[in-house]
Every structure is written in C-alpha cells, then in structure tokens.
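User: Can you help me understand a structure? I only have the sequence.
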Amino acid sequence: MNWFDFEQHLPITDPTWIFLLVLIIILFAPILLSRLHIPHIIGMIIAGIIVGEHGFNILERDSSFELFGKVGLYYIMFLAGLEMDMEGFKKNRLKALAFGVLTFTIPMLLGIWSSVSLLDYGLTTAVLLASMYASHTLIAYPIVSRYGLSRLRSVSITIGGTALTVAWALLVLAVISGMYKGEVGHLFWITLTVKVVWVCFLVIFFFPRIGRWFFRKYEDSIMQFIFVLVMVFLGGGLLELAGMEGILGAFMVGLVLNRLIPSISPLMNRLEFVGNALFIPYFLIGVGMIIDLRVLFVSGTALKVAVVMTVVATLSKWLAAWLTQKIFRMQTSERAMMFGLSNAQAAATLAAVLVGNKIEIAPGVPLLNDDVLNGTVVMILFTCIISSVVTERAARKIVVSDSSGDLEEKPKEEENILIPIANPETIANLVNMALVMKEPKRKDGLITLSVINDSNVSEARLVQGKRYLEHSAMVAAAADVSVNTVTRYDLNVASGIIHTMKEYSASEIIIGLHRKVTLVDSFLGTLTEDLLKGTHKQVMIVKCLMPVNTLRRIIVAVPPKAEYEAGFFKWVERLCRMGLQLGCRVHFYANSNTLGYLKGYISHKHKGVRREFTGLEDWDDLLLLTGQVHFDHLLVIVSSRRGFISYSPSFEKLPSQITNYFSNNSLMVLYPDQYGDSQETLSFSEPVHHSDSQRYDTIGKWFYKWFRKN
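Assistant: Let's start by predicting it. Here is the structure, written out as tokens:
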C-alpha cells in the first residue's frame, strides 16, 4: 500500500478518520479565523466546502453527516426556544407577529415577481421559489448565545417571526407537494389542521408536566440530559408525522421547557456545551459540503439564477427588518440584529429545493431544475456569510454600548454569596438557589465554607469537609461558575462563618434550615440565632423539598415598614432574579405602602418579571396564605432582627406557624441587611441580653399559667 497516494484512498470512509477530521475542523477553524476577525460559523461552512465532494473530495456527505446535521439543526431551533425571554416575547408578541408577516410577505411578493419576470418561470415554480426566500434558519443564533444576548427584544422578535414564517413556508411546500400527488382537497386541509393542532396540544399540555415530574423525581445529570433530548426529538418526530417539518417541533419543545431549565443552571450549560461543541458544527460542515462553487463558472444561466436568488433573498429580509424598525421606532442595532438572524437560508430552503427537484411537472422535467438547485446552494453560502458577519457586528456593538452603560452605574456593593455547608443532602439545593440569585453576567461570586470545630478535629471530619466542598464546586462548575472553597478552623461554628464573611467581603449568606434534634431545640437553631446576632448582612435560611428549577411560584410575605430597612432593595433584587431565571411568577403580599415601593422598583428595574401584588395589612393574617401556598411553591417570609424598624412581636409566632401550617412547603426565611454591625452598634430596643429577657418572659408566662390552673 502506498501511504502517500492520497487520491487512492479518497474520500475517507473509515469512521475513525472521518470523526477525527471533523474534530480537527471544529478545533482549528475558529482559531484560524478569529485572527482574521471572521465569525466561526463561516469557518465551518468554508471547511465543509473544502473537504466536501465539490472541493478536494476528502470526505463524502454520508449518513453520519445527515444524522448529526439533523440533530444540529434541531438543536439550533431547540436552543432558540429554550433561551427565549418568554415575558419579553409576550410583551413584544405584536412586534413578532408584524415581523413574521413582513418577513414572509415581502420575500413572497419579490420572489414571485423576480421568478416570473427575470427568470421566466411558471407561477407554481415561482411560488415555491418565493417560499424558499421567505423561510430562514437561525444559523447565526450561536453568536447571539455566545455574547449572552438571547434575551434581547430584537432577538425575541426575530425568533417569534422565524417560527411564523417557517411554518407558513413549509405549509406552502406541503400544499404544492400535495397538489402534484393529487392529495389537495377539502379532506387534505381538514386532516392537516387536525393533526397539527393535536400535536401542538400534546406538546404544550403534556410535555411541561412530564418534564416537571421527571426533574423532581430524578436528579441525575445524565438522565436529565438524555430526557431533554428525548423530548426534543419526540416533539420533532410528532410534527413530522403531522405533515410539517420537525424543526418546528424542536422549537416548540424549547418553548415549553423554557421555565424548567434556568439559563444559569448545570443542565442548561450541558445542553449548550454539547450542541455548540459537536452537533451544530457538524450541521454547518454538512451545509458547506453541499455547496458547489464551480457552478458559477460553468453555466451562465446558473450564475444568473444564483445572483437573482441571493439578491432577492437578502434584499427582502433587509426590507422586512427595516420596516419593522421604522414601524416600532427601534434602534439601528436592533434592525441589524433582526436582519442578521433572519437572512441565512439553510434548513427549510434545502427541504423545499430537494422536494421541488423531485416533483415532475412533465416526464423528465422537474418543478425546480438543476439551475435552481445549484443557485440555492450558492444562495445558502452567501446568505450564511452575510448573516454571520452582520450578527457578529451587531452583537459586538450592543455589548459595547451595554458595557459603557455599566461603567456609569457601578454597584455599591460587590456580590459575594457565602454558603456554609454541613449536610450533604442540601448542598445541591443551596448552590442552585445561589446560582439563580447571583448576577447572571458574573462567572464567580460564590463562596462555600466548611467550618471545623477546633475542639472536635479529626481526620474523618477533615476528609468529610473537603468532600462536601468538592461537591459544591462540582455543582457550580456544571453551570460554568467558579466557586471559592474555604475550610476554616474555629472554636465556634457561628464565629467561623462571621469571620469568613468579613475576610471574603461576603454580601449575604444562604444557609440550610436547622433540623430539630431535641424538644428544647429552637426552630432556627442556636447556630442561626448566633449568626443573626453576629452580623448585619442579609441571611437567607432555606428549606428545599424539591429541585429549585421545578418551583412554579414564589410567594413572598413582607412585613409592614420593610421598605425602610437598609437591605430592602437587595432582597427584592434577588427574588426578581429568581423569578426571571426560573420563569415563575413572584406573588408579593404586603400592606399598601410597601406594595407601592415594590411596584415602583420592579417596574423600573425588572419589567420582565411575572409578578402579582396582594394586600396583607396585618402580619397576623399570615395564616391566610395557607390556601395560597401549594407543594410546588416557594414561601419566602421576610423577617427582621429584633430591635429594627420592621420588627414586630408577631415574629415570635413564626416558628410555630411555619411548623403547623407550612411544614410541607419549600421555605425561605429572609433577614435583610440592617444598618451597622450588630457587634459594634446597639439600638434602644435591642438590650444586650435580650435572649435572657426572652427566657424570663417564658418562665413568667409558665408561672402565670400554673397559678391560673391552681
């Protein structure tokens, strides 16, 4: 065998070498093109052209590229639905509908006119060709995701418009295909409508419920990942059975699972990682392997068709974005983002041209001839390049403008969340709670702490503490967030936590709820009570009965005068972030004065939060919430340290009320920031020995009851 006679062994057929070459392309294409400031997506497509049968014929577009390519295409649509800002989409649904109508109608009109007048095609061919211009593929969406801009208004509008125009374009394809098969009639429309509506009902109604049940029952990361993929391809397969393209099913599954998979979570990180590392590049390389640049120089007719198709497709998409911008008075960067995302032609366009090439209007005469087929692959190349370049530039411009705005408003306090850990069963829930509360753009800011009592040091305790810290770091690392793990020796666990807070400038603490061991134990436990006395920083005491991402609603009970506390806006900010990340509704119960502050802050800072407000004039009415808090809700009780302005004597009843009425609910008891350091300052209503006075009060009440009995 001659090792240097490469042509004898081309194209490569051995699976090992095929996969190796694809991985090399995925690895080095971004490295090489980043120096030329060319988007990575174009590199994948160009690499596909070079190694494909129309290039150096190194690889053949075999079944592996068809399989992984379809998976990658489904992945793009699924991630687009999964990362969409649902509340932003609801607010902009009219804009999305308008953009969808424009980005379908304008290409259809221009496409029919250009095909009839410039290319001399018949009406049916012109309509099918125009539907190819109308549809588009979110090839450039990974760029948006990489820059963290998936929740922008312009992105939500484009994704909503994409779903509409692709559905209508595929409907045109189904009708024309059915016409030549003799299937179009009254029964055809009724059957298609019934099947599509039935599949949509199954996906929208059952998939979220199945997902919520599965995530509660099984917390294994691999099982959750495989389950999501099963849902994606089940949705795509069901829609294909209904007669539509499966990419719409993948998009719908992304929408319905949106609220179950927070954008900052281990599962979301795994989904994005696998898709962007393997499946989506495989799809892009496969698209490049279809493209044959030689057709531009072989036939003048093919060149004319390719030029007309590329110009019409690009111009019509730009007009749709421009009109949408003018109608709704949007910014130029938003127009560029909408145009960049909607210009690329790939998935539905390929489906339409391949189906049209197989349909014969006469013996040996296809509906879409080879010139259209070759012109389509050239149009795919140029529209993908334009789409990638425009989207990259728009994303950079938006990020730079946002960064300059951030410089003007620097946060008053650096966010560092301290998580003391001692119970292995609560580590994952505490870290996940911190992940949905933290600043989304930061990839750090978490500190996990293991305090070892000096009087009880042993090798087993050291190993156990180290293992707990490693577990916490693994949970956060799965969400691409780094954790600062700290082991501290101290005579007292509470003082160890307090000293660590000061040394690492922690802004707040998330700690698990104490478990009562003996009858004389307090509800919060001695450790938590000492912690509240020893720090003025925000303390959140958490009990999670289910995974954080499966919570459906957050019920917040706010005491009167809470707005006058120093940490009022901090805890409101944290709960609003939770609502945004989990996609759940945040329901505030407070008196009218406090509700005014809550409404004003949230409408100004977090318009996208799904929120409700209900009056709770008397804190003793907390028991009224028993009918509002269900098993899949999180009850947040905003409390206060003794002696501060929002403190109420009724807080003393909280332990018994929670134990009696909310023992089966996930719970957070929140103590906000308060002025000064409790170890250095003292208020009139906060005597030094208030714990002793509480004991005296209890003893006095006991004697009073005993005398009454006698």
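Now, to help you interpret it: Confidence is low (pLDDT under 50) at residues 404-411, 677-704. The chain is about 60% helix and 10% strand. Let me know which part you'd like to focus on.
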